[in-house]
Specification:
Elements lengths: L5 H8 L3 H7 L5 E3 L2 E4 L4 E4 L2 E4 L4 E4 H9 L3 H8 L30 H10 L4 H9 L3 E3 L6 E6 L5 E7 L6 E3 L10 E2 L5 E5 L2 H10 L8 E4 L6 H9 L5 E4 L5 H16 L4 E4 L7 H12 L2
Parallel strand pairs: 11-12, 11-13, 13-14
Antiparallel strand pairs: 1-2, 2-3, 3-4, 4-5, 6-7, 7-8, 8-9, 10-12
Helix pairs in contact: 1-4, 3-4, 7-10
Amino acid sequence: MPHYTDKQIQAANHCDIATFLYAHGEVLKKRGKQMLWEKHQVWIDGCRWYTHYESKGGYAVKFVMRYFALSFQDAIRELLGGMVSDCHTVEEIPKEQKELVLPTHHTDMDTVKDYLVRERGIDPIVVSHFAYAGTLYEDAKFHNCIFLGLDEDGIPKHCHRRSVCGSFKQTVAGSQAEYSFHHNGEDEWMFVFEAPIDMLAFISLHPEDWQSHSYVALCSVSERALLYRLKVNPNLKKVVLCLDNDEAGQNAGQRIRQQLYDLGYSKVKILTPQNKDWDEDLKICRREKHT
C-alpha cells in the first residue's frame, strides 16, 4: 500500500478541484467567484467543495474519494498525477461492497402510519400498499420510517430512513444507489422524485390507476437509480421529472433531462410542485378540503 508523507497529503488536499474536473472531461459553470458542478450540484472554490443538498463539504482528497469512488491512497495519487517519488506501485484490488445491515423491524407500524397519514397527509391506502409490498416498515429502535429498495429477486439492496420527529434522514451504509425505493408498473410512464415521502405524496395527489405507472425516489439528485430502472424496464418510454421546486431540484431536472435526451429518450417532461415539494402541495390540498 502506498505511504504518503504529511506534505504530500497536504499538497493533494490543496489541489484545484476545478482543474481536476476539467482534466476528467467534466463541465463546470462559473457562478460569481465559485464554480458549480451541476452534475452533482457541488460548489467548487479552489481546493474546497460543498453541496448544500447534503450539507457536506471539505477539501480535494475527500472530494475525489466521494465522487470518483477512490480509496484515500488512490485519491492522492490521482490528484498528484501519479508523480509521487516514494510511492510503490501495487496491484489494484477491487473495492468491496459494504454489507447492508437493515434496521430491525418493529412489531407494528403504528408510529410510522400515524406520521405518514396524519402529519404528512399520505393516503393510508398508499401506505398500506408499500407496507404489504415489504418496502416500508417501522424500525424497532427509533421508530423511523424505513424505505427499502429491492433488486429483481426481491432482495433488499437499498435502505433509506426518515425520522418521524425532526428532519433526520439518511441512506444506510451499504446501500446500492441503483436500487433506491421504487415501484414497478406495466405501462410506459416513469415518475421521478427526490425523496420517498414526495413519491408517496404525489401518488396520493394523483391516485387514478397509479399502480400501472413506475416511480422511483432518488434519495438525492443523482440520476443513477433512474437510469437503472430504465435499463431493466425497456417498456419505459415517458419520463416525468418531479423534483423539488428549489435551485438544486430544478438544476438537477434540467441536467437529467439533457442526459435522457442524449440517451435517446425524447418524451421527458419536468413537472414542478407549486410549493417546495410534493408533500407541501399535498398538505395544503388536504387543509383546503377541510376548510
